[in-house]
Amino acid sequence: MRHIFKVFLLVATCTIVFLLLLYSFLPMSENPYALEADSTISTEITAQALRVATFGAGCFWCVEAVFESLLGVHSVVSGYMGGSLKNPSYEAICTGTTGHAEVIQIHYNPELISYELLLERFWIVHDPTTLNRQGADVGTQYRSAIFTHSDEQYNLAQSSKQSTESKFADPIVTEISPASPFYPAENHHQNFYRENPEHPYCRTVIRPKLQLLKAQ
Q1: pLDDT tens digits, 7-39
Q2: Residue 59 known to be catalytic
Q3: What CATH number was assigned to the domain covering residues 49-215?
């Protein structure tokens, strides 16, 4: 009987030791709530660090594709600004009677790209000397415009416009005015080039422009 008890005690002791050793080699689990909190804090900090810029430079399909490839640009949303009609549709915009311009709203990280650099790209991606027109696109909705979100942006835009005038044979007609309500365009207008690379407009207008900019 004593022999059986000793064997049982030995087996139990070995089992406990084995389990303790096994547990010591397992990775320590982290608190899921702590991870969630850290992730939330990180997201909030990122969002607070971003700045907003709004440009009108013709058809937003093309302008969106040009700016979303820049390092430091977090997102680009196509939409409408500068008109009187609330929640306008694309069809309403195309009548040219709402006063809106097709624009892109850029969220960017100022630590990676400055507003001044965004302005430099703005001047070279379209013709700011043609009034209410970009190429074959004609109408007030295609006007060249910079909608500013602060006094600093307004002053920088005015200064950038003055320093760029000499690069064009004709006067720059770009509108520079404080930002008004922004209305995102319909979903099928967002990420248009990426979603529709073989669309005729993408192949004949956007792709050549991107290739030209890349070569500069």
Answers
A1: 444 444 555 444 444 444 444 433 333 333 333
A2: yes
A3: 3.30.1060.10
